[in-house]
Design a protein that fits this description.
Layout: E1 2-6, H1 9-26, E2 31-34, H2 41-54, E3 62-65, E4 67-69, H3 79-86, E5 98-99, H4 108-121, E6 127-130, E7 152-155, H5 158-162, E8 178-181, H6 184-188, E9 192-197, H7 203-211, E10 229-234
Parallel strand pairs: 1-10, 2-3, 2-6, 3-5, 6-9, 9-10
Antiparallel strand pairs: 4-8, 7-8
Helix pairs in contact: 1-2
This protein binds 2-phosphoglycolic acid.
The site of 2-phosphoglycolic acid has 7 residues, from loops.
Length: 244
């Protein structure tokens, strides 16, 4: 894993936005895997600003988001709505190129299968952006005795639901217990992975992911098996790494 350390989260977001825009300019049909959460908000802000300033053309790009709550929309915000506000409404992505798991699908298993087929039909993901949970999850692949390889229905840990109350009026009981998520192999199949981590509360998970054993109790550690992973961290998230 390549670790890139930045003093400030804003500098990290700016560097990654510039990198992604360069990729779009070189490869107009880029397939980008996107993540939600508070960490990538600065990235999306930078992408909005740079797109407007440079007239970046997203019309051939495809995006695939990692995960979505089951049933959200009636009780709080869907990740799809978050992405619309943060990025999609501000760039000229073709609506048909925005791929999302539908957490309100009648048949959730079939919806997961559909998503795997979509990824395959697009020829796979060129670059996947990830955050990391305090518990070491990526997407909604929560720690456990085994990890789901493919897109699946995930049961969320209470700590994960507690960290998502900002989308649900601050009420943990409103945060769904279930979500749909790309699986670990779905993620690892991406040709390149960029994981972002900022803030001291991520330091332990970041250290375990990079320096610990590969274990399903810290799902992000599986990324050690991938050939092209860049971990972009601020000083706080890098705070427990032995080589700083
Ligand atoms: P966060 O979520 O950016 O809101 O901390 C990260 C994650 O759970 O992947």
């Amino acid at each position: 894993m390549r670790v890139q350390r930045f003093e400030q989260a804003a500098a990290l977001a700016s560097a990654l936005a510039a990198d992604l825009i360069g990729r779009i300019q070189r490869t107009p049909r880029l397939v980008i895997g996107l993540a939600t959460g508070r960490t990538p908000m600065l990235l999306y802000r930078e992408l909005r600003l740079k797109t407007a300033a440079q007239g970046v053309d997203w019309s051939l790009v495809h995006t695939l988001n990692l995960d979505e709550f089951v049933g959200a929309g009636a009780v709080g915000q869907r990740y799809r709505d978050f992405m619309q506000e943060e990025l999609f409404a501000h760039v000229n992505l073709d609506e048909r190129h925005i791929h999302f798991l539908d957490g309100r699908a009648a048949d959730l298993g079939a919806e997961c299968d559909r998503y795997e087929r979509t990824i395959a039909e697009l020829g796979g993901i060129d670059v996947q952006i990830l955050g990391i949970g305090v518990n070491g999850h990526i997407g909604f692949n929560e720690p456990g005795i085994a990890l789901h390889p493919r897109t699946h229905v995930a049961r969320l840990e209470l700590s994960t639901r507690a960290r998502n109350t900002w989308l649900f009026d601050g009420a943990v009981e409103r945060v769904p217990e279930l979500a749909l998520s790309m699986g670990i192999e779905t993620i690892v199949d991406a040709r390149e992975i960029v994981l972002l981590a900022t803030g001291a509360e991520k330091a332990e998970a970041v250290q375990g992911m990079i320096e610990g054993p590969v274990t399903p109790t810290l799902p992000a550690s599986v990324l050690q098996r991938h050939k092209s992973v860049t971990v972009m961290v601020d000083g706080d998230a890098a705070g427990r790494l032995s080589r700083r």
